[in-house]
Amino acid sequence: MSESSHAENPIREAFARHIEDLDTAPFWWKNAKTESYEKFESLANPTRRDEEWRFATIKGLELADVRFAALPSISDAAALVERSNFIEKFSGRFVFGDDQTLQADRLSPELEEKGVIWAPLKEAVAKHGDLLKDYFMKQEADLGSEKFAALHQAFMENGALLYVPKGVEIEDAFVVYNWSINAGSAIFPHTLVITEDFAKVKLVEANLSATEDTAAFSCGVNHIFAGVGSTVDYTLLQNFNEQTLGFQINSNIAGKDSNVKTISVNVGCRRYRSETHGQIKGSGSKVEMLSLAVADNEQEIDQRTLQTHSAPHAVSDLLFKNALIDNARTIFSGLIKVDPGAQQTDAYQTNRNLLLSGTAEANSLPGLEIDANDVKCSHGATTSQIEDDEIFYMLARGIPRAKAEELIVYGFFEEILERISCETVAENARQIIQSKFKKRQTK
Amino acid sequence: MSNTLEIKNLNVSIGDKQILKDFSLTVPKGEVHAIMGPNGTGKSTLAKAMAGHPDYEVTSGEVIIDGENIMELEADERSREGLFLAFQYPMEIPGVTIANFIRAALNARLPDDEELNAPDYYKALYAKMDMLKIDRKFTSRSVNDGFSGGEKKRCEILQMAMLEPKYAVLDETDSGLDIDALKIVAEGVNSMRGENLGALVITHYQRLLDYIVPDVVHVMYDGRIVKSGPKELALELESKGYEWVKELAGEVAAS
């Protein structure tokens, strides 16, 4: 045991320093952070007995290895900005490194004139306080990570705010890069998307590690508020290194007749927990929740989803596909909840797992809770194993084993990759998957 | 010896059961040899063991391609060395298109920093598909997924034509084919015959050998070759039946 009372609670100590460093921030902001910190401390760590943490590895979630201390300055910013090149033609780009702004590519004057807001949150706190008061962290985490959402709000200091006013349609995507740089660092990526009536926008978020060998922690949040008739297309490419512990707590609220599509491509992290809540609040809306994950070695990818239909005539379509290699583990736990008034709901939930080894483990917990009587809902989960004879057939054509696995995995993921609306992003997703198999081939 | 496929004293088991017993055979490049024999005699075991299937344990013996023993190599390496196996039951690979599958196989034969030229590749692929009367739409279909028996076998020959092996083993390529499909497959194989290819055609029936006329016929029984001869041997075997093979085997064992 340490003798210093501070050192007994290094997270609280770090939080005190964090608040001190925010001395120019508005009172309400600091106050909300302090409340969040207290909430974080008051909530118990998850246990495996919690339904929301079934099958999950709990060890390590006490975050004892995470350094919440202030991070050293970033020396290779230019190189990281250079590497932030997934999309050449964008409407705006932020490059964050350990939550510091390394590069901010702002709006065109044309979009600015239309009233679009695209700002790093560090700036937005002062400039767009009213907007943040209405929307920042206004979607509850309710899939098990309440404690970590509170931690996120306590420590987050940067991120991207994207606001698109009524009727503004933007073709080129906005892009956010979140680089994890220093060993032991904790980052809290945040993206907030708000669209007014009939607006249309795309956001791509890439979560990456500067190097392969830095153990780090990331706890990110994405919230989407899709206004009436608006269209939001959100893609997350997660390729942290395999030393990283990652949380991603995402939620969207779909307004009347809106279209919301979220796609996650998960390749990295030693252990990754993602929570995705589609809140269908407007009638006639359509929400697509798509995800693919490829896990190898000892990786664990833990996915919890909720589709809440509280308005009639809406569609939600969830498809999560996981490919597992070596001793990887995945967990998919999903629930479709249809409220009494949400008649004529179409809701689908599908989880498909592909095992490429006999020691990988895919857990699947699909669920339905329907309180309306005129709905179409289906859920299904399948886990299939690549047969040795399929691999042998490919080997017998001279295709090396890792390449054979890669081809089969691509084939498996194609139905998701082809739903990424921006071809460049789809290509990036393919490359991230490919880089994983390249690593395997050179092992 | 170079320019031959040489199988030397190959012993192969599945579990405790020995299937191939000191099996030896030589196919010079440029020739087509046929292996005929009753069911359960080890014909498919020979094909799979040569290709490196993990279920078949090679206890001793060598398979030598142009002077190099390939039995220490992995299955994919054997293929890249120039051995091709046309499967009796080709596997379905869902989600992997024929075009991507064959491209991956060809890329695996190139140095690390080289890639196939896509237009040239498709040109070659379409030419071979036309020869085998395979609809070009098949390029975007998953490998063997939902194919008829005849389509699967033509797809095997298409792969063989694209990969241009030094030696090919055709394992019961005639099984499940009607006469029209058989003719197309045979034409495909015949078009590849020549000084750059040696082929070993495994079949249960003489019928295939009307269309792919072999230079040498071997009769196999109980894990070894019991008689070899010119193409007429296939007809003799057809008329005398496999009971005759058992007699031959008795003679071999006694000698």
From TrEMBL, chain A:
Residues in domain SUF system FeS cluster assembly SufBD N-terminal?
A: 31-173
Q: Which residues form the SUF system FeS cluster assembly SufBD core domain?
A: 183-412
TM spans, by residue?
A: none
What are its GO biological-process terms?
Answer: iron-sulfur cluster assembly
Matching InterPro entries: Fe-S_cluster_assembly_SufBD, SUF_FeS_clus_asmbl_SufBD_core, SUF_FeS_clus_asmbl_SufBD_sf, SUF_FeS_clus_asmbl_SufD, SufBD_N
| Stored NCBIfam families | sufD
Family that this chain belongs to: Belongs to the iron-sulfur cluster assembly SufBD family.
PANTHER family recorded for this chain? PROTEIN ABCI7, CHLOROPLASTIC
Name of the protein in its database record? Fe-S cluster assembly protein SufD
Native source species: Pelagicoccus mobilis
Automatic annotation (TrEMBL), chain B:
Q: Does the keyword Transit peptide apply?
A: no
**Which InterPro entries does this entry report, sorted A to Z?**
AAA+_ATPase, ABC_transporter-like_ATP-bd, FeS-cluster_ATPase_SufC, P-loop_NTPase
- A GO MF label: ATP hydrolysis activity
* Family that this chain belongs to: Belongs to the ABC transporter superfamily. Ycf16 family.
Q: What PROSITE patterns does its record include?
A: ABC_TRANSPORTER_2
Location of the ABC transporter domain? 5-247
Tell me what this protein is called: Fe-S cluster assembly ATPase SufC
Q: Name the species this protein comes from.
A: Pelagicoccus mobilis
PANTHER family in UniProt: ABC TRANSPORTER I FAMILY MEMBER 6, CHLOROPLASTIC
Identify one Pfam family in the record. Answer: ABC_tran
The UniProt keywords, alphabetically, are: ATP-binding, Nucleotide-binding
